[in-house]
Amino acid sequence: MDEQFFLYSEEHDWCLRAKRMGWRIVYFPGASIIHREGASSSPGKSSTRYLVLDSELKYFRKHFGPLYAFAVQIELFLSTVVRLLIWSLLTVASMSGFQKKRMPFDKMKFYWYATRWHFTK
User: Fold this and answer.
1) Cα separation of 14 and 25, whole Å?
2) pTM of the prediction?
3) pLDDT truncated to tens, each residue of the chain (121 aa)?
4) How far apart are CA 109 and CA 102, in angstroms?
5) Do the beta carbons of residue 42 and residue 51 sit within 8 Å?
């Protein structure tokens, strides 16, 4: 496996390289896997999402070139901004009601940092 992928997208890279070498990628429906959510990283941590985004950009840059990776980065940025706006509205709505909820604020904060992360790449 390519060591430039720390934790995420390595399986995509591996399968694409195998396919390009003429190997077959086979789906076996009888296989069963238990996925331990957060076993490799803490769920909900911002750094986890940044690692996913970073690996995706590395994957597209490696296999499809810098222009394609740039287009993917624009799409990821726009989707992050849309999510930031949605969670900001939900935060304001939850603060104006009788029940103050922490989750919308935490999500809004996460997408704010994720939006800023895009400017570091």
Assistant:
1) 10
2) 0.69
3) 888 887 788 999 999 999 999 999 888 899 888 877 666 655 555 567 778 888 889 999 999 999 999 999 999 899 989 999 998 888 887 776 555 566 787 888 888 888 888 887 6
4) 11
5) no
